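With this grant's support, the team has encoded backbone shapes as discrete tokens. A representative record is reproduced below.
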Amino acid sequence: MDRFVGQARLEWWANQSTCLETYDIDITVTVDAVGTLRATGRHANALDTTQREGWDFLMEMDPHFSIAFPSEDRGGITVRVVEAEDGTLLLTEAPDWDGSVNVTFDLT
């Protein structure tokens, strides 16, 4: 089993050319014998009110992020993020995610 402990960056991409936001995280990653990535982490820095609102908005729209490790310019692995009540981030590889999401906005 492979293991990485360090920092990484979560990137939320609106499309192939537009990254709406990035979040630095402290992360522990394991890769099992069949190559499945699983990770836990926390935001590297506490989110201020504006950042928290942005995070919550993106998580509600679609909890899929690309993850970029040190020395990577752009994330290449898509993960589904779940945030526990204590702030722990659970990341599970989502190789079959096609990047599409159906979102409805209430503009009233």
